[in-house]
Amino acid sequence: MSDPRLTELARLLPGLKLSTDPGDLEHHGRDWTRRWTPAPIAIAYPADTTEVQGIVRWANDHHVAIVPSGGRTGLSGGAVAAAGELVVSLDRMNKVLDFNAVDRTLTVQPGIALEAVHNAAREHGLIYPVDFAARGSCQIGGNIATNAGGIRVIRYGNTRQWIAGLKVVTGSGELLDLNKGLVKNASGYDLRHLMIGSEGTLGIVVEATLALTSPPPASQVMLLAVPAMDALMKVFAEAQHRLRLEAFEFFTDRALEHVTAHGAQAPFAEAYPFYVVAEFDAADEKAEAAALAFFEQCMEEGWVVDGVISSSDAQAAALWRLREGITESLAAYKPYKNDISVRISRVPAFMAEMQALLAEGYPDFDVVWFGHIGDGNLHINVLKPEGLDYPAFVAQCEQVTALLVDTLARHEGSISAEHGIGLVKKPWLSSVRSPAEIALMAGIKKVLDPNGILNPGKLL
């Protein structure tokens, strides 16, 4: 290590794995955003909590900023290291530590992949219900840091609902053991929930106790073709009335075109403006009859013009691929992304305004949008045309985002539903949080991270 600070870190923690390999620096210095050039000083791979504490104390002594790093599947620049920071990769802290059958909890290290958590829970006949397409690469620590939601929020809620306890190393190197898996704990401020969604700016998660639940009844998946935007919420209302929903997602014809070009099978002979993927309980004949009645009602009303219900696990997976494959199918275009939310009751009015705004703001761009309509969360992807300079593309998109923020403010929505603020959305934080809230957030960070070493420049 040519940098004397790194030499000192290696001396203090002789078992710590450190890398300055250019490939590692580039790989770990960025997330799924590609707007910033990675430039970390090094990558540290701690193997346990003691090493994480040692890194944080060293960083304070040497005034080195730290960027915690999980699976780096974030879309807001929250895991970017572009200014000589030390990236603390939690890849080696990836184990299941404990399962408690009575409490129905699973205690894990932060670097474990979400899919591995699903598999571990399933081995005990239970489920960890938070789920989304990046399950194979995202990590639990990152999910907690952004309070990730995903496709089953409509039934199970966000990550926050499933965190029974946390161990966190603060910006001063102190280890906090928060809530300890208790169901009830009315003993003052619940700092566990302060850490959830804090984007690594208040502490580094080193252990999480996850609440598990029983598997849902057998389910089926339905794909519906919807002729107009104003019919989407009518279909959703009818589904809520008649079905026990696991998930209710929508996407546009442009999204379907990209996914099928990426290898998915087209579901219908004709193309339609909008599509809905709904998963619902189908444990018995009564539930299946309710699903058929729902479909027939939507067809009679003209809210749906075509549809298919899965008859096997393979067909259900194929229908879900049409929704879950969207992000991957767009990755090569370096899309500019908005991740927004409004109250469910305001979705129809907001979507009407949003569609008009996008048509006017992006007349020559391919705009692909989809979302978790059952929880008011919409994802907008603007694809960069060939030949357009990337900085110019981003600048044009940000002009439209500023108008979108104004529209969100009128509908009391949020510029970030589940991806965090990071670097990308920091200019618009004040559209969601009042000056008093932002001042309090800065004060909280000062207490937990007195020298400002944890993920500086992100969020605040």
From TrEMBL:
Spell out the molecular function terms from Gene Ontology. Answer: FAD binding; oxidoreductase activity
Residue ranges constituting the FAD-binding PCMH-type domain according to the UniProt record: 36-215
Cofactor field = FAD
Q: Give one Pfam family, short name only.
A: FAD-oxidase_C
InterPro entries this protein is in?
A: FAD-bd_oxidored_4_C, FAD-bd_PCMH, FAD-bd_PCMH-like_sf, FAD-bd_PCMH_sub1, FAD-bd_PCMH_sub2, FAD-linked_Oxase-like_C, FAD-oxidored/transferase_4, Oxid_FAD_bind_N
Q: Which GO terms describe its biological process?
A: respiratory electron transport chain
Which UniProt key words apply to this protein?
A: FAD, Flavoprotein, Oxidoreductase
UniProt similarity note: Belongs to the FAD-binding oxidoreductase/transferase type 4 family.
Protein name according to UniProt: FAD-binding oxidoreductase
